[in-house]
Amino acid sequence: xxxxxxxxxxxxxxxxxxxxxxxxxxxxxxxxxxxxxxxxxxxxxxxxxxxxxxxxxxxxxxxxxxxxxxxxxxxxxxxxxxxxxxxxxxxxxxxxxxxx
Length: 100
What we know:
Layout: H1 2-15, H2 39-57, H3 64-79, H4 83-98
Helix pairs in contact: 2-3, 2-4, 3-4
């Protein structure tokens, strides 16, 4: 279920374009949709998906709470466009789960 929620959230964030609004609050009809997904973001999302699956496999780990919190930081960095930082968090999650 959590995988579905995270996947849906990421799909919403990266799947929809952004509409710009003029100062009067009306949509700017000349604006084209902006898609934020780049190759590095796609890679970041793929790694995040794999790490999420690893979390699901290690639910009995003594470090599960720390791993989940660290994973959320990674997701935030990934969504914010900081793929290198996100991958560092994801690497920390793997270490937490495999060293417990």
